[in-house]
Each structure stands twice: as structure tokens, then as C-alpha cells.
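Our consortium's second objective concerns turning raw sequence data into structural hypotheses that experimental partners can test. To show how far this objective has progressed, the report includes one record in full. It was chosen at random from the queue rather than selected for favorable results. The single chain below, 359 residues long, was entered without modification.
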Amino acid sequence: MSKKEEKSKADKYFNMDLMRELCQSNSISGFEDDIADIFERELKDVVDTIEKDHMGNMICTKKGKKSKPSVMLASHMDEVGLMVRFIDDNGFLRFTKIGGINDQMLQNQTVTIHTPQGDVTGVLGSKPPHITTAEERKKVVPFDQMFIDIGAKDKEEAESMVSVGDPITINALFAEYPHNCFMGKAIDNRAGCYVVMEVLKRVNTDATVYGVGTVQEEVGLKGARVTAFKLNPDWAFALDTTLSGDHPGVKPEEAPGKMGDGPVIVIIDAGGRGIITPKKVRDLLISTGDENDIPYQLEVGDGGTTDGSAIHLQREGIPTGVFSVPTRYIHTPCSVASAEDIENTIELIVKAIEKIGNE
């Protein structure tokens, strides 16, 4: 398939406005309601049932024939963020990190504290470089030496504005890039959420398809664990993002995936401590890509893992695969991804589910 044909696919199908809304919505782990609302709005006229379980997972079911297999698609709705931990006597906030965040990127970011009374703007501060020692300037400032300034004059005023336990998100732009790419926060994993919603809209199959927006992936794969146990599907696919190593500072062997070369099919992640994709799942996904001329990449990863690792260990074991969209600068407010890769992910999953439905 030519690059020109790939580009026309995204031009024809990709909904940049929906992706913008997903990225600009705020849903850190444990506070996924905004993304859950988008799931419900987008799929209420597409699926047969929508259920929000006790943990907040969204289970959107497109019923097939009882004699046919069932397929679970899982994408986590949460993003990494911060939470108010302590308010000091001078009205400055101390915070904890929710999920994996590099301290280096936190300094001097503007943030929003989400309170029941409304949003409050703050800025992440730390000791100014003008009065640090030469040795201090060589080191990354750890997050526990930072604070959030919300303009309060003292603790009493700050407590009238925010409370311990309020979630915090980092403010970020969303921008369209050339070549059907875009930049924004929380592409991990709003890209996966987009894929799940679009697959449910486009798939035509006799299989039952569960589209699940999971909670608390970034802090322990929690939502996927309970939904997979409940649904016990015949097949499962986790949708996520992975490192795109096509930029300065990364060696090809460290992150071979490249933006624009198609979805990444995970063979192993976390050096095998996570998922080791079963042969029948690998064969299905690779053959589907080859038969339909859909570009894809293969990944053997040593780093992190996904909802797939929790899903495949439920009940008697669930045959599970993982699709990841290659993304630059994951877990920062300015990740970059390709709409072409997302569209190819959707197409490959749709075709794979249709093959399963013909079993």
C-alpha cells in the first residue's frame, strides 16, 4: 500500500474533532467520568447495551449470535496526573504523582485542580535556579521538593479553594501536525479509546463484541482485571500506545517502532513478565494484516505492560493480543501520534474480529 493511499484513509475516516475532545478531557486514574461520558455519548446508538460497573468501567456490548465467539476490546480511560496531598500554612499545595511521571517534565508546568466547586489554576514551583548551588543545578528536582502555587495567601484561603484528594491535570495544547499527525496530552490512552469506539461503529460481525473503557490502568491494570473476569470472552485485544523511537536520543534497538509505519502488534512486553501473546493470536493478527495489506510492526518489549497482562490471566486464561499506537513523548503533556497508525489499527482489528465471527 502506498503512502498516498494510507494518507487518504485518514483523510477519509479520521475524526480529529473527537480526538481533540478526548485529549483535552481530564480523567486521571480513579476519576475517569469525563471519558466515560464520551463513551456513552458516542456508542449509545451503536451498541445494544452500555453498563457502568462498580469501579467505573464502561462495558459497551454489541451482541452477536450465541453460537459465535465473543471478543473483548479494552482501552484504559485514565491518564497519569497528580493529586493534592497536603496544604501548608502559607497556602501552597504539596502533591503526589498518580501513575508514571518523569519529575523532569513537571517543573513550571501550569495545572488545573479539579474540585467539586469548579476548576482552580495553579503553577508548579520549586527553588529558583538563581539561588541553587552548582551541584543542585546538575540534578533533576524531585517532585517532593516542588509545590503548587494557587495564589492563596494562607492555608485557610487555600482550603476554601481546594481540598486534599482533589485530582490535578497538567494543562496542555492540542495541535494538528502535518502528515495527519497531532500533538496533545493523554494520547496514552485516548488513542486506544478512539480505536475501541470506532471499531464498534464499523465492525460487521456475528461475534459478540464488548468495547470496554477500563479504569485505573496506570496504577495497576485494575479495571481490566475485573471486567475480563466478569465477561470471560473467547478472545481479547488490549488497545494502548507504545514508544515511538524515531526521534533524536533513541537507538533503533531501544524502541524500534516508528510513527507512520502502522500499529504495533506486541509479541512480548515487560521482557515476558507481562503478556506473552499466544501463537493463535499472533497468527490471527499477522495473517489478517498480510491478507488485507494493512501495515503493522512487531514488538518484543522490555519495558512496561498493558491491560492485556491482566486480561489474559483471568479465569482459565483468555487468548489476548495487544495493539499499540506508536507515540512520541508518552506520559508528557505533549505526546505526538499519527492518525494513519490509528486508522490502520482500527482496520486491522475490524478485519480480525470479522474472521473470528466467521469461525
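The partners drew two points from this record. The chain has a mean pLDDT of 95. The longest strand covers residues 235-243. Both points have been shared with the crystallography group to help prioritize constructs.
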